[in-house]
Amino acid sequence: MGFDWTVPLVAAPMAGGASTPALVAAVNGAGGLGFLAAGYRSAQEMSRQVAETRESTDRPIGVNLFVPGPPAAPGAVDAYRERLRPEAVRRGVELPAVIPPDRDDWDAKLDALLHGPARGVAWLSYTFGLPEPAEAAAVRAAGIRQLGTVTSPEEARAATALGLDALVVQGPEAGGHRATHRAEDRPGPLPLLQLLGAVREVTPLPLVAAGGLGSGAAIAAALAAGATGVQLGTAYLRTDESGASAAHRRALVELDATTVTRAFTGRPARGLRNAFIERHEGYAPAAYPEVHHLTQPLRAAASRAEDLTAMHLWAGTAHREAREGRAADVTRELWRDALR
Predict the structure, then answer these.
(1) Looking at the domain assignment, is residue 290 inside a domain?
(2) What's the domain range around 75?
(3) Which of 31, 203, 297, 319 is most buried as measured by Cβ atoms within 10 A of its Cβ?
């Protein structure tokens, strides 16, 4: 099973706007493999992005889906809502009183990828879990290769048993959400290179390393540890084609420490440490996507104000190494540095 790259660098799918068709096309043009982030998007929005990307590159592309999990228990976010209410008053926003079930348009996205306007993508990757066996079989029958994101050997065993084609092994250094298969799980402590070794012991599948890979030396170390390729997210946030906001780009330079928090979404996610996290981290329940929807008005208000003390600023541990410039140039430079 071959990957669609001449350079073994994958542009990570970064939901929320950071991943763009232009970023995917630029990384593809430099020999890498780009993934669109369909998380938080409707099936129609995802299909539009697939079409836009295809206008800019004739090379294979990938799409990432968030796998829906069971809803949180009724009332799981009630106490957290009350805790956040003073923040909402200060921001002049309303917190949602009711949060309906949300499967992230999973069924419609699968249909669009298999039978609709988004059909024909080369790769489909999964975050937050695995598809049902019948769904994985349907994707396989459509000729789409499947990439599961795992954070532990146990998750790797499950993905292998499902018949996926390859795995993204996400270490704790990664920016954004940890891809644990259950929202309530605490991410394991094994650093990426050790995690690669532990996962290699339980699966023969090709492994793509992810987490804290901001330099050529880090990329080379991951490949030497057994990875077939590497996936980069934070490394592309400051590029010309990134959809990251100006405030987020500034924060990557101005702020130092990252931390893992549930405060913004109810799932563990690594971001730049700020006052919002410090105030609320100890109180956020393991309820995703309920907390994500609960805090949406607060996050939107903070982003409009470019308030770095309250924005969700996802970033990996190597965020200070993120480079400005064209994504294609960054891809070539990182690979050149890795070969030294």
Answers:
(1) yes
(2) 71-102+256-312
(3) 319
